[in-house]
Records
---
Amino acid sequence: MTKTIKTAADLAINGASPLFDQPVHVGRPNIGDRQHFNALADEMFDRHWLSNDGPLVKRFEKELCDFLKVRHCIAMCNGTIALEIAIRALDLRGEVIVPSYTFIATAHALQWQEITPVFADIDPSTQMLDPASVRKMITPRTTGILGVHLWGRPAPVEALQALADNNGLKLMFDASHGFSCTHRGVPLGNFGQCEVFSFHATKFFNTFEGGAVVTNNDELASKMRLMRNFGFVDYDKVIYPGTNGKLTEIAAAMGLTNLADLDKFVDANKRNYSQYRTALASVEGVKVLEFNANEKNNYQYIVIEVSPAYRTSRDDLVKILQAENILARKYFWPGCHNMEPYKSYYPNAGMLLPNTSMVAGRVVVLPTGSAIGESEIAAITNVIRFVATMSSH
Ligand code: T4K
């Protein structure tokens, strides 16, 4: 960092040099102890066992079951395949209700299997599926609800479970953001019929690429294990249609390494969250989304909502930040219903999604994680504060 922003002419968007020489990204991976990782990698090379349900994957699954207090964990090559396998194992078909305000993979995992994602609106105060909107979307073709624990905050699990029970629907969750978070003291992973995690590099807890389905249902777990490995039960025996959803041994080594360092990641994220909250508390028109202090949180996403009171638009703020090499993101703008193929299939879906449109138009996700610290956050929040002052003149 080489400059201080005192006037609009100091902003990179107006031709000055950027605040950061190197980009400060949202999504910088949390990386655990390298010696731990290297030792596991050496073990793996010595063993000459690189994939196909190897010993590191088995150890990883066991540690995840203990950590999440679930009966079964089926590790997968990424969160999207894990969603697809869970959806298929639950025998979902016809229509499944999902939020539009989520990463596109939630909707695609259904559409990929010719199941119609039906988009329900969110509650603007929580950004989660609104059960009242979900209820309105139920038709005779609906077979399930796919809730999302967005930003690691729990979806309204009890209300969604009641809706599912009262309408004979299956309920599952996309818990991609929710690793190491609780709802009423229970780890996410224990709700609905199964829950899916993403362990992508950008997630709080990563295995480079990876994911898992966790469930307390024995039958569902065995079905998903078969599906993950082409349906094989023995060397020459296939009893089910399946795909290749396997996690590699090197990815499991990364998982075991990062699992041992989770507390460090949470500490860094929590420190960043407090600093952001304090620094932005007095900025009119900017609200930092809060985590429930009574629950366990991973604090992985610093989400701000930029309302009209900020005067500079959300999009202009993002342009200003990006010009300074602060790679903030407009997740999950413009909502799945505004992306293809959904935009063409359901051109009027937005009429039923006013809260989704409003929230998607206001959110900015800011850089955090163990790769950034106090001075970077001070600089980022100074820009956001400066732009607020500048625009009110
Ligand atoms: N459901 C939900 C709710 C999800 O959020 C996701 C994934 C899924 C399902 C599917 O799970 P996976 O199949 O991915 O396991 C990124 C991630 O690729 C994606 O995993 C994630 N959600 C989504 C929220 O973010 P993009 O398109 O934003 O990726 P990209 O390449 O722009 O990277 C994001 C930022 O991270 C950049 O600023 C660069 C930085 N980065 C990225 C990588 C990979 C690094 O600094 N280092 C890295 O190694 O989707």
---
Amino acid sequence: MDQNVTLNNGITMPVLGFGVFQIPDDQTQAAVEAALQAGYRHLDTASAYGNEEAVGAAIAASGIARDDLFVTTKLWIQHAPTGSVEDDTMRAFDASLRRLGLDQLDLYLIHQPLGDYYSEWRAMQRLYADGRTRAIGVSNFHPDRLVDLIEHNEITPAVNQIETHPFHQRLTDQELMRERGVQLESWGPFAEGRNNLFTDPVLTAIAEAHGKSVAQVVLRWLVQRDVVVIPKSVRPERMAQNLDIFDFALTDAQLQQIATLDTGESQFFDHRDPAMVSALGGRRID
Ligand code: NDP
């Protein structure tokens, strides 16, 4: 199967990448170096993860040609200390790029659908028009906010990165995104192991039938749905295992079995929960 997806502006993105959320800063360089060694060419970080510099150091140490890599980072909620969210977005972008040691980004995402993200988006449209990032997108946008952003701006986000795994499958969200030309990218493909994902009996039986692991079945299920995935691991053997999903396919019957696992709810929190909106909104970065 094709190991790339084409975004709404025509650029391609590897369907499988490596996420670095919650890897401690002092372990990130080694983890990313190991991931690049294993064969990952798509990296997902964020200013909020505090490890962009370590990701950049690993990229520099790898010697891999820049054109062979796809690098995503994310803008945290801006609070306009200068009085202009647009100006601060430009500054935050420059700071991320500096930390990553890059002169162009592949994908820049609004991390949270909170605060004055319309001003953030206007700045990101400028960054895109100026060629400073090859694509722009959003993360954690529920369908109503996504459609509103699309309706009132020039550029439709290329990607919406949202929690997507067997217990929160986002099928109707994906349908809407498909109609609107927005690529679904999964975060937390394993739900970080919550709800006993790695020992789930349905997933385990399917894994045994293919001689694969539960993790591989979950990643295969997502890419078969045309969902971009960015699993995280600090262990080289799991990094390699998570890449090795292109030599088998789930049957329709197996897809139907996995469909029964959907709870329609987050395993983490809802971005529409007022307490969470307040907690996230209070965090200051850049
Ligand atoms: P994941 O669902 O990818 O789960 C990671 C966990 O699974 C780790 O504990 C890891 O352990 C374990 N694991 C990885 N591979 C295997 C395997 N083959 N077998 C068994 N266990 C395994 O969680 P994340 O939250 O990290 O999501 C992935 C990425 O998505 C993030 O790194 C980040 O880039 C992005 N993200 C974005 C968010 C957003 O708001 N936009 C929010 C959350 C994540 P170990 O490391 O010990 O192997």
